[in-house]
Here is the input.
Amino acid sequence: MSIAIRNISKQFGAFKALDDVSIDIPSGELVALLGPSGCGKTTLLRIVAGLEYADRGQILLAGDDASDRHARDRQVGFVFQHYALFRHMSVFDNVAFGLRVKPRRHRPAESEIQRRVKHLLELVQLDWLANRYPTQLSGGQRQRIALARALAVEPKVLLLDEPFGALDAKVRKELRRWLRRLHDEIHVTSVFVTHDQEEALEVCDRVVLINKGKIEQIGTPESVYDHPATPFVANFLGSVNLFHGRVEEGQLHLGDHALALDKTAADADGKAVAFVRPHEFDLLPGAQAGGLPAKIVRIVAVGASARIELSEIDRSDGEVIEVTVARDLFRLLALAAGDVVSLRPRQIRVFQTPALAA
Amino acid sequence: MSASIALIPGNRQAYEAPSTREPIWVKGGLIAIALTFFAIFLLLPLATVFSEALRKGWGAYAAALIEDDAWSAIRLTVLAAAVAVPLNLVFGVAASWAIAKFEFAGKRVLITLIDLPFSVSPVISGLIYVLMFGAQGWFGPWLHAHDIKIVFALPGIVLATVFVTFPFVARELIPLMEAQGSEEEEAAVVLGASAWQMFRYTTLPSIKWGLLYGVILCNARAMGEFGAVSVVSGHIRGQTNTMPLHVEILYNEYNYAAAFAVASLLALLAIVTLGLKTLVERQTRRQTHEKSTLTGE
Here is the structure.
């Protein structure tokens, strides 16, 4: 079932949680709402579920206006960050709940309920826990039960509110892959709220970046990562180095140094902020023209790549530039703390600074 | 979640850190003082009640209880409690639901008002009803014209009892419900549960022990209330006397054995209440503990 979010606004007192947000989610897609905490992403999810009502705007489910439909009639599955399992019910009863509360004429026979719950528990690979209580499960197991419970009513839409937020890193990674596989298997339209960019980029078909109640960018993980539309997106997705300078005649001027820009990188001259990811630098020995001279402060050579922290020679504010290079290349370069190198970015993303903000 | 555990005393064995350990004579002294007070002010009177009640033997004791006026006082007390407790049960659940799950204007005022019966002297609250419904009261002439008796009759006694026992259930449930939040309820609703199913299958199981605890305290107070009921009852023997009022009358008539016999029933009620309260507290603690292991990652 497709979801259309049309011009949704929501205010809590003086705080604008959502400001004219519109998203179209085609049937079967797995979409992430990504943003820092307090950006309004959870509020948006709750509005789609009917747990919260928007001040303005519409929610269309499969093309029909569902804005005034009660949560119990929206046929959505909702997975809560803290599981919200019914703690006085066994795992089996938790999963069966949605089927058992159906009005008598829609309720499946008890034998059918047994069969379906068993099937769902097998789907989340926890059928051996059917008689346990939520308190006896680990966090990861609880969240999988919560997912099975949400799927029991065969929702047309699955909404997940930071589902892995309360789990430790290893379990989180495991469940992430598992969720992706599950989605490929059952293909229910899913919206996934997270503040973890790695999670969003890895799991989802498309990512919606939200900041301060507004959409910053919508796109596939590759496109938003490689072509951020706004400084916020460039900053939020992965680590990045930020430079303040001026664009003049196709070059980025940082103090006395000029860096070459692609023709497409900047369309007008003026003040600008530039973003360069740590792995997008070439390191040249010594001070060279066309590069930014910097001194190596610290080297962390652990794992697949070496992380080098540098400080710009002509700046003394202690701003650290982070550069990563592959371990093999790092060995060839034979760098050490204290060396001076020139940084030449392979790719720079430039955003014009509006005159007012400058 | 540790905060909600700490609310219930005796949940954990007190840990005696060496730095705060006192010399043996301090410890012994404090225990002796506490036990002495307990014996003089609680145990001794209780023992007196029962020994005085049985002074003239079991026969006289039983006779004092089945005597017409005493029996009618017992019936009236039970009746008043039977009306007041369910009323306050419904009100308490409704009020704490509203307070814990919703934000609305006047919420703070409502919380304060619920506590009003705790802060007002029961005699005053009884007097309020006399001033409103008594012969000289605001509604007195109208009530008289329609032949409705409130003051010096059963309705007045019930009203006064409801008023004094007003806060017990709500006070017990509000912190419990606030601590539990509404995620389980939301989960139930999204899964298609109706309002009643949501309450029956998610809210009620999580509050049941707290609710029972509140009801037990509410009942004990309803049966034992003296001040407020005394003002509105009119002390008509065999008609508007509740047990506490009956005890007073017997005592004023120097009928000590009978007075103590009826009093022993109230004392017995207190003991049963304490026993039940302890049982329920144990259950609540177990539940709170489960809850804390559920969310405390």
In short: The first strand of chain A starts at residue 3 and ends at 12.
